[in-house]
Design goal:
- The complex is a heterotetramer of chains A (152), B (267), C (341) and D (666).
- By secondary structure, chain B is an alpha/beta fold.
- Chain B is built from 11 helices and 5 strands; from the N terminus they run αββααβαββααααααα.
- Chain B has a 5-stranded mixed beta sheet.
- The longest helix of chain B is centred in the C-terminal third of the chain and has 15 residues.
- Chain B is globular.
- The mean pLDDT of chain B is 94.
- Chain D is of the alpha/beta class and 666 residues long.
- Chain D has 5 domains: 129 residues, Rossmann fold (3-Layer(aba) Sandwich), CATH 3.40.50; 177 residues, FAD/NAD(P)-binding domain, CATH 3.50.50.60; 58 residues, no CATH class; 165 residues, FAD/NAD(P)-binding domain (3-Layer(bba) Sandwich); 71 residues, Alpha-Beta Plaits (2-Layer Sandwich), CATH 3.30.70.
- In chain D, 27% of the residues lie in helices and 25% in strands.
- In chain D, a hairpin with a 5-residue loop joins β32 and β33.
- The chains are: A alpha/beta (152), B alpha/beta (267), C alpha+beta (341), D alpha/beta (666).
- At the A-D interface, α1, β2, α2 and α3 of A face α3, α4, α5, α14 and α17 of D.
Chain lengths: 152, 267, 341, 666
Amino acid sequence: MQEFEPKIVAFVCNWCTYAGADLTGTSRIKYSANVKIIRFPCTGRIDFMILMKAFENGADGIIVSGCHPNDCHYSTGNFHARRRWIVFRNLLNFTGIDTERIQFSWVSAAEGFKWADVVNNTVKKIKEIGPYENYKKIAVSTLFNEEGASNE
Amino acid sequence: MSELIKKVKALLNDKTINVFVGYEKGSADRIRACFARNEAQANKVFFDASCTQNLAGYLLKHEVKHFGKLGILANVAALRSIMQLASEFQIKDGEVYVLFANPDGTFVEFNDFHSIEAYLQTTDTGIKAEEQERIASLEAMSNNERWLFWNKEFEKCIKCYACRAACPMCYCHRCTTDVNQPQWIPVASHERGNLDYHLMRAMHLAGRCVNCGECATACPMDIPLNLLTYQLISPIKETFGATAGMKADATYALSTYKPDDKENFII
Amino acid sequence: MEKELKILKYSDLPKLIERFRSQGFPVLAPVRKGKVVEIEQVQTIDEIALDVLLSTQSAKKAAFPKVEKVLDYTLAKSGVTQQPVDLDSFQETILFGVRPCDASGFKSLDAIFGEEPKDQFYLQKKAKSTIISFSCPVADEYCFCTSVGGGPGNTTGSDLQFTGISKDEILVEILTEKGTKLSALFADLLSVAGSGIDKSKFLADVKVVFDVDGVVKKTTASFNNAALWLDQSLRCIGCGACAFVCPTCACFDFQDEQNTKKGVRLRLWDSCGFSLFTLHTSGHNPREVQSQRWRQRILHKFAYMPEQLHVVGCEGCGRCSRACPVDMNIKEHLTSIGAIV
Amino acid sequence: MSRIGVFVCHCGENISATVNCEKVAKITGELKGVEFSTDYKYMCSDPGQTLLKEAIKEHKLDGVVVAACSPRMHEPTFRKACAEAGLNPFLCEMSNIREHCSWVHPKDDLTTEKAQDLVRVMVEKVKKNKALNSIKVPVTKTALVIGGGIAGIQAALDIANCGHKVIMVEKQPSIGGHMSQLSETFPTLDCSQCILTPRMVEVAQHPNITLHTYSEVEVVDGFIGNFKVKIRKKSKSLDEHLCTGCGLCTTKCPQKKIPNEFERGLGFRPAIYVPFPQAVPNKPVIDRENCTYYIKGKCKVCEIVCPTKAIRFDQEDEIVEVAVGAIVLATGFDVLQPDFFPEYGYGKYKDVIDGLQFERLASASGPTQGQIRRPSDGKEPKKIVFVACAGSRDPAKGIEYCSKICCMYTAKHAMLYKHKVHDGTPYVFYMDIRAGGKMYEEFVRRTIVEDGTHYVRGRVSTIYEKNGKLIVRGADTLMGGIPIEIEADMVVLATAGVANKGAEELAQTVHVSYDSYKFFAEAHPKLKPVETNTAGIFLAGACQAPKDIPESVAAASGAAVKVAALFSNDELTRDPLVALVNRQPAPVFSTCVGCFLCQSVCPYQAIEREEIKNRNGEVIKTLARVNEGLCQGCGTCVALCRTKAIDIHGYSNQQVYTEIMALLND
């Protein structure tokens, strides 16, 4: 059987984690190719709906990462993001959405090793949990089947 | 009762207000909102314990505002709505005459926001025990059970947006769901469209919901939507120390922060 | 065609459903879900809530669902390729246990969707639906079917109508070719009905509260009576509950959902009660305020449809009033329009 | 229909070693809207850029994706190239297939596929990009220097001498900082005050410098070129214009027994005091915490004796608001507090002192007029032990770093001691001698060889008092770790240099980042040593890390040049990647509903209120508006806005939505 290769998307801020991931590259630290990064100016920019869109377009896991508290390039964006995630995680849990599949982290521009760890551990965890079947049942792609939308 | 009608008439007569938003008897034992602008209409104004609708949303309705100075018969939920709306610059102090209806049938005039704030400090604004129990029983379920529960509930949704229309905090002229560049929330009332819409709405009410329950009451498909926003009330209070609709100049819990906000999931 | 009368035993209803299912027909019927009653696919008679006054939503979704795919397409460098939905793919379906007002509601939809250019999605689905309505033994204060030309035993739109005439027996009226064809499946369960059965004895008593022709005239004449519409609609909060439970509301919206390579076009319910319904790109909104939207709803059903399609767009089922979160009662509003001197 | 060009860079072999660049170019060339795609060995080289420019012209490209290294490296390069070819630079995006792909994954199909995915994301994003014009903002040509030590003084003078205004804020009543406390300086043994005080005076007299002493920065708003700063001028209880600095009050003040901070507790001062004789400004302040009048409500001796009636007991703190274009942080450092070393008895034994106290003892203007005397009994110590690395290089105690200056000042102390106590015996316990610097090693050798200082390589484990002597126990690791015990008369600890108390709060006020030791963080440890991550804010001196005087001065001059360079422009050109609130034709005006929840979330106070009025001048709507001069483009408001009325250039809702779609749907 072919090994499950999860689709994982990482939403990261430009100043810390994106730069940290650059350092991972510069340091030639290897990590899994399952994770692909989308760059944001700041974690404060990451709308919660962006996470919903990732799952419904087939992501099995999500990484959200930015500057450590007090290190935000914009001084407070990550604090606002943190509050948003505290609330949103509560809501996701309450609606039965699997928050295990969302890894939040602080990775600074100096933490090239940490970025590789975050990626590898997330990939490992998602491989263990398996594909996000619940969400795949309602994914955008379900519309494209021959049956199409429900003709109730 | 005649006391209330007399009061409304007096307010209309001395031009304190141009319209009084209150309750009247509706069809099939229902209670509904009324908008008294003259003596005849004032005669219909009614109040008893069954008058539970949160009328505050009407304060922002274009055609109601158009009458001029508004008066409202407010319950606790409406008072809190007014406070929250004030904190979001939708209502200014002095703009609305607020008559508060005690559940025992007596009435209190609130002259300013400050006195509303003071009153709210003394009264029970929490969510009902039965709702707390429903939340607790959902929380006790496994993640997958909760997913299935909400799947079944959202399946019923027809996207009539009665929840949004009934909610005093859903006053945006252009809801996220009506934004199509990009179309964040699918318009279609399929499973994903419904889930996205309700998650979005709950998140946008997090820290703003005054637990009036209008959304669930309004839902023609009997979806317990209020649980979604109610469930977020206590974590927001416990983690951030914030409760919506208690102060007219409150800062929204999600547009502020403390450097030491506690979480246990960010590595 | 000449209608035929037969008798069916209540105790044979389970078999009836079994027969339909064994022939591969999906059966749509009212099903209780907590406080609401939905019309959805059932497998056995036990699932069906035959005792309910009315389902929360109407039966229109059998031919006009809330979400309906009308087109598949693919996006490529070379351009867009369309794959139309195969209209022959719709299944023969049985609508079972709906009310006369549901069945007659299709006559409005037939008129709307039957106009040129004909709407084949609706028409094909409708053509493949056979409707077995149950006449109404009871009614509530929201019902006013008799005021708009219908009634608790109205057979318009039904292929078969069932009326309970005793604890054990159902009077079966075979009303159409489709009805005849379907009843052949259970001919063995039917017996000949006696000639002296008075169906009306078994129906609810629904009083006529207004003269529909008068309401149509007065509605048409009241277009400019802004105070009337404002008074009626002040408490209206502008949701779409009334339209979405209505058996005759037919407004819809198209939305594309796509990723970078594939997409679908969906037809979705829409409502004239929504403030964005008529919003122009320019920012101008010809129906700027809720009272104008309310007027549109009433005029559409009681002025424009009678004028253009020769049907009144209301079955008097009262679903909109029951569903309304703020007690907008259409019967009351129409009565007051009827009373305008 | 878009006409996008895709350029896949091999980066020599940096990318092509693991990614099949030809294939990436070929596959992405088949994407809808891609007009041209190619791969090339070095896109950033001249020929590579020429290739890009030619392709833009030849194929009339309206969007460019360069798949190469990190955009943090070459985004400006390629955007500039696009601009030169006539394409708006903001229609160029980069896919990071080197740092985020070829360097971190092995050579296999997955890696090439990931590169394709990353390119596809940018192709779809760039379709939604908009041509943007840079934003120009004016520059306020006044600098704020926070801290009046040698670094702040140097920076202020350098900037002022370039012809720009400088506002200096100093927390203490006088400028001068730690350097004013030092006796003589290594390696030349210049008298510290002799070289410092002329500079202090120059600051005070410079026409371009405004000095606020006894003052602190409370609020910093704004951004590079346009900061708004609130300074709290603490009340000195004195009318500075009337005071002549005669000093009569300080001699008559009945409260005389307050430990003198400048002397590090080795002397006393009155409640109304000038910190030291050469203070600038040389005018006293009343220490309200210790003043009898403020404590008991009566006294007022100073007011009575003051010949110019300059005392103002009821004076309140004053808030001064200033507009500045750049900020130099020069707040210096501190040394470890006594309670850090219970085993050394610091604070318990009077004769265990720290290096700064020794400086005061050795200073001609100090409490002993430069004679080395024991604080306990005033006797001359005949045997003295210097403990280097007191706190530094001690991971167990949390200070892992080397404080850098201690080796040198300890050598200086030993030398000064021998110069003053000819028959004395100095010992130095050390871990390593770090004397990198011009004439530094030679200086240490002199201390050892010429002045006969006993250098013992080892750590001191404990110090205790016995019969009036301090017993110093340690080990000599060069002698095989044999235990060693010295009966000393005095012990000097070379305590670690640490961040100032309150450094963290100041960093947060000023909006700069700081490291785990609370020292302010430079933007780049090698290439941007005096810049911070916040544009327009620079670092000078030991607030960044322990530094000696020449280093502090060099950094200060460096920071000053950065400020002067900034001030050489009348306006700044900024990336237009800012937020905006939509505007629509009447009667909608905007989908903004005016809840202003965005206002409190903005770190830059960039969100303003705009009133929309009808023809009669009545306000019909109040909408949010983004001041694009203030907005720094974090986008936090965009995520918060419920009506999606706010969007942000460069990371717009359309763009990020499209990116997710493209990334997850191959």
